[in-house]
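Team,

Forwarding the record for the chain on the shared tracking sheet. I've put the sequence and predicted structure together so nobody has to dig through attachments.
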Amino acid sequence: RAIHQLEKVISAMLDASQIDVQEMRLSFMGTGMETIVRLAVDPLRPALHERRLTLAQQGLDQLPQIQADFKRLVQAFQNVISNAIKYTPDGGIITIRGTLAPSAPDLGDFVEIVVADTGIGIDAQYHELIFEKFFRIGDPKLHSSGNTKFKGAGPGLGLPIARGVIEAHGGRVWVESGGCDEALLPGTEVHIVLPVTPPAARVSPPGDRPAWLVG
């Protein structure tokens, strides 16, 4: 188990380094957000069950297909949802909502996915910092062990990688929260906006698609 965890950390560090130098090559194909979210959630279901967390989904099946790097987007959403699990106390609720965002001139349509939890929330001063590499809120010595335990430990690379993947798709991600309070549990919303069709310059020609990167 320790070796597996080390391999995951090394893989995450490689992904983060690719984002730093803008070398994360993506292979685009038509895919549905409902499928992406389902595959992101499936490995996390044991943690949801163990922590007695309820997962609800709304509107994902109503969204149009988007052009995306399937594997990378699953990785990004798994990181975001894993973070929601980490900072939501046992018995809480995580809701994943999908809507078609207003289109922008010359940019086409966008989808917006919101991952909302009933967790402890995030202070405003950390809303940007959580997307920085190796940043962790609070005293790491007080964190429990395990990536999906309440306030679980981790290398601090999940959200930075998620942001890198989303921005490489021509999208954006941000956090909204009423602050951090372990008694009142204000919760957190992570907003992810993705273009239905990514910028043309980022689309790999069908005959020039690179092999899947390790994720």
